[in-house]
Amino acid sequence: MSLTSKEPIDVFTHAQPLSFFLTKVYGISSDYNGAYTMSLRDILSESMGNLQESCQFNYMFEIPWLIQQYPASFRQKPLLCVHGFQGGQKAGLEADARKFTNIKFCQAKLEMPYGTHHTKMMFLLYDNGLRVVIHTANLIERDWHQKTQGIWISPVFPKLKSGPSPTQGDSPTHFKRDLLQYVAAYKAYQLKDWQDHISRHDLSSANVFIVGSVPGRHMAEKKHWFGHMKLRKLLNENGPVKEQASKWPVIGQFSSIGSLGASKENWLSVEFLQSLATVKGTSSVPLAPVEFKLIFPTVDNVRTSLEGYPAGGSIPYSINVAKKQPWLHSYFHQWKSEGRGRNRAMPHIKTYCRPSPTWEEAAWFLVTSSNLSKAAWGALEKKGSQLMIRSYEIGVLFIPKYLVENAVFECSSKVKEAGQKTFVLPYDLPPRAYTKSDKPWIWDIAHKELPDSNGNMWCPS
């Protein structure tokens, strides 16, 4: 599928029913920037719909650049930016927007220490319906330039004929219920209009599940509404059957790592893997045979990347955290994306997946803003009676039977060979384990052994 002849709507249509995209990357062969790829400009283009107003949930914003990504005809349309900034950062954001009279802000409440508003989501209201986009990129220029980022784009959801309803026009995946539940958790009056817009539309064509996180200590039935316990519940209800997949490996791929405790038993290999390894009907599967493979860039992956060492400025793993969890590094695998032409485009995408031992099928796939951290996914407290989450996050879970009427996805990163129902992965399988000389990228120490692809060293201040 050639890049030049196609409108964004054609690229979108070609990628159905999975509707999973990577961002376009500057400096790679155009062969890899055609099918299954979108720029921010493409997503916001006139070809995708006649925009009336929009809402952008994100962590970081460059307001003047963001406005330039909208077509000239849409740059005056109302735009609500949902962020978590406080104090000076909030003042800076508002100052950047002063000359754009169409922009309003909603500050997400962050009452838990170390929490962030990390969600990356767009609501695009057209004259003929509503589109929802869930992705992994900050709304800043460098995030859309030479990084590997993931995007899910919904169909245009038409207006309900019967007027607003929180329950009518829901999908078999309860997309409407869960989206309204997520937005309601902000308890923000600025989002009231968007809650109404969602209620007024028919979201029954949504074919993915929402996995969101919102700050708080979630107990009773709410324990299963968010974070890894939401994923556990969804896999318990819709996951692979035990006979088929209980021994299949699990992959986690991310661009940042939090403090996970003194040993794998603290959280990673018990609580978190328990959720990821859940099969239909039970989450109490023996975890011993489940291989957990984590994909995280090595120093060399970053050094030889398109951006060179500065790519590591978006891969925040700090030396103080790394020193406390050396046990984690035995799980690590290199970033490799030959099939997508993105070996040198460092990942800011975050994905979790259950591939088969042959690496040709997958039982499910999740793209999300959630990195490998308790803050994002939640940690059980009080003998497992409550889930404590610090941050706002959102992702979508792809389950084969809702998308391809099969028990598994065929999957491959080889975009040039992909069929209509192939899940085109962002990285190559099988994952390649770190060699003896590989070290995980750590962003706050100097890297001066060798220069990067642009001839520079890394000397963080």
UniProtKB/TrEMBL annotation:
One of its GO terms (biological process) is DNA repair. GO terms for molecular function: 3'-tyrosyl-DNA phosphodiesterase activity; double-stranded DNA binding; exonuclease activity; single-stranded DNA binding. InterPro entries: Tdp1 (IPR010347). Belongs to the tyrosyl-DNA phosphodiesterase family. The record marks S373 as: Interaction with DNA. Substrate binds at K120, K350. One of its GO terms (cellular component) is nucleus. It is found in: Nucleus. This is Tyrosyl-DNA phosphodiesterase 1. Keywords: DNA damage, DNA repair, Exonuclease, Hydrolase, Nuclease, Nucleus. The active site is at H118 (nucleophile), H348 (proton donor/acceptor).
